[in-house]
Amino acid sequence: MNFVTSWSGGKDSCYAMMQAVAQGLKPKVLLNMMNENGQVSRSHGLPLSILKQQAQKMNLPIVTIPATWNEYEAKYIKALQEIKTEFELDAAVFGDIDLQPHRDWEEKVCNAAGIKAVLPLWQQNRIDLVNEMLANGIETMIVSCNIQMGEGYLGKIMTKELAQELEAKGIDSCGENGEFHTMVINCPLFSEPIILPEYTKQIYKDYCFIVWESN
User: Fold this and answer.
1) Are 175 and 114 contained in the same domain?
2) Those residues with Cβ within 8 angstroms of residue 141's Cβ, 6 or more apart along the chain or in another chain
3) Which domain holds residue 188?
4) pLDDT for 30-89, tens place per residue?
5) What was the pLDDT predicted at 214?
6) Residue 215 has pLDDT above 70, yes or no
7) Residues 114 and 136 placed together within one structural domain of the fold
8) How do residues 134-159 score in pLDDT, each as one tens digit?
9) Same domain for 169 and 109?
């Protein structure tokens, strides 16, 4: 079964992709939705240069689609339809864990494109998932977080100890509710780690971001 990964650049989409590969599915392409200017990803605020690095380390093509929030769904469906034909896809893999509205949306857009939505991480225990990701060789850093966590967490590499610290503070260790987002630096799917550009930290409204020099 050939699949596209809904690739955020973060740990959950990465581990979902690893799980799909372990189940015998074949990755063919990555898909990422960008902001209107096409230079920064919508979900994690990653620059195009880093997304391309990640794809190159996996020897996979990446399709990036600029979109406003209003046109997001229509453009996503159109992209799925086009890459389904180009790469002979059967499925799309997503990293969501238990937000039912997200799953409903993913199944909706996949149905519109005539492919299956696959969610390998669905309804698994959060802290167990993080520990599995780390045990399976995913190296990932926090690249954005809410103001309650604070900018001190930006740039931190995820560890078992950090995950426990977050849980102790009442923060979802997977960031499933948007508390924070991560970026994968290295994993078994990569031929080698990505090269990180220099960065600064910025607070915008109620969220803290890493701003990369390549932006």
Assistant:
1) no
2) 155, 156, 157, 158, 182, 183, 185
3) 127-212
4) 999 999 988 889 888 899 999 999 999 999 999 999 999 899 999 999 999 999 999 999
5) 58
6) no
7) no
8) 999 999 999 999 999 999 999 999 99
9) no
In what helix (H) or strand (E) does residue 93 lie, and over which residues does it extend? strand 91-93
The answer to whether residues 72 and 148 belong to one domain is no
Tell me if residue 35 falls in helix, strand or coil: coil
Alpha carbon of residue 119 to chain centroid: 13
CB 9 within 8 A of CB 44: yes
Q: 10 Å Cβ neighbour count for 168?
A: 9
- Position 57, amino acid: K
CA 134 to CA 174: how far, in whole Å?
A: 12
Q: Which residue matches tokens 């509710």?
A: 177
Please provide the average confidence, as pLDDT, over all residues in the chain.
Answer: 94
Check which CATH number belongs to the domain holding 164 and give it: 3.90.1490.10
Provide the domain count of the chain: 2
> 195 CB contacts (<8 Å, ≥6 apart)?
53
Q: Which own/partner pairs from 194-198 qualify as long-range (CB within 8 Å, at least 24 positions apart)?
A: 194/50, 194/53, 194/54, 194/57, 195/53, 197/47, 197/49, 197/50
pTM above 0.90, yes or no: yes
